[in-house]
Amino acid sequence: MAEYQQVKVADVIQETADAVSVVFDADFPYRPGQFLTLRCGDVARCYSLSSAPGLDRPQVTVKRIPDGYGSAWVCDNVRPGTVLDVLPPAGIFTPKSLDDNLLLFAAGSGITPVMSIVKSALAHGTGKLVLVYANRDESSVIFAARLRELASRYPERLLVVHWLESLQGLPTARHFAALRPFMGYQSFLCGPAPFMDVVSQALRSSGVPRERIHVERFISLSGNPFEEVVDEEPADGSEATVQVDLDGESHTFPWPRHKKLLDLLLEKGLAAPYSCREGACSACACRIERGEVKMLQNEILDQEDLDDGIVLACQSLPVTDTVRITYT
Questions:
Q1: Which helix (H) or strand (E) element contains residue 115?
Q2: Which parts form a coiled-coil structure per UniProt (predicted)?
């Protein structure tokens, strides 16, 4: 069972007709663009932090989606004073430097982690930011007033481009050709899969290398990381050996072949990052430097990630007798 904390809700802000921001009466470290995993009734769900570290109280923004149990539970049940079970902040959708120039793409509630990055970069960085924000119509634009205020305060650093489907239709790759002067910026994408596919196509056709394209995807969790994990050991008890480079230190352990890598690292007392524990987020991603593993499930990494040796620790079992992994 994952270690979690209970956090009291300080406020609930109605952002649009179907989106709310849940503000926590808490203070914990996180990086712009990360997310929290909340216990929502009988399920667990990942929601991005829309606040900026050091500027706001921590908050997540949740948009009600059709037939979405978790989002409906939050919108219908969470009030000031509600106490929620929350896993530590996680995720790698965060700039390495807030001084970088950033080209940001968001659609719908995909603005949530992007908003955290925008506010953090403007307050603590020096780079220029271009934000392309797509929505169904004007009434569905989350943070509309806040974005206007930021664009007015930082006219030399922040350019906000709104795309409204009701007026302009669905965007295609050719619609982003005007952004070519900014294609050298670090690019961050968050939103529905069709939108991100179009944006990724536009960026790659313009020659943007993969290492400058950062994508955030979330899939509803089928399991619950707040519940006890049952680890059944096979009769043969065979083991591999794993070397782990984490937080500047190297550790070597026997690795039982039935045990997932993340479970082993947590059992050994290492602060390995994680959240969903079922291969539906990128919080536990690490790189294989030597050896081979197999993943039981993967809903988030694409083929290029796999070709680069990226795997999910929460789903990895050893194949070779020795394995070396690093966390970057």
A1: helix 111-124
A2: none
pTM of the model: 0.82
- Kindly report, residue by residue over 111-152, the tens digit of the pLDDT: 999 999 999 999 999 999 999 999 999 999 999 999 999 999
What tokens appear for 246 in the block? 């984490």
Domain boundaries, the chain: 5-86, 102-216, 239-326
What lies within 8 Å, CB to CB, of 164 at 6+ separation is: 134, 135, 136, 137, 138
- What architecture is domain 5-86? Beta Barrel (2.40)
The pLDDT assigned to 282 comes to: 79
pLDDT value for 301 = 84
The domain 102-216 is placed in CATH, from the list 1.10.3210.10, 3.60.15.10, 3.40.50.80, 3.40.50.720, at 3.40.50.80
Q: How confident is the model at residue 220 (pLDDT cuts 50, 70, 90)?
A: low
pLDDT over threshold 90, residue 275: no
Burial label for 119, CB within 10 Å (0-12, 13-18, 19+), is: buried
CATH architecture, domain defined by 239-326? Roll (3.10)
What does the alpha-carbon distance between residue 4 and residue 223 come to, in Å, rounded to a whole number? 16
Alpha-carbon distance 274 to 2, whole Å? 9
Are 272 and 282 in contact, with CB atoms under 8 Å apart?
no
Q: How many residues does the chain have?
A: 328
What's the whole-number mean pLDDT along residues 262-277? 89
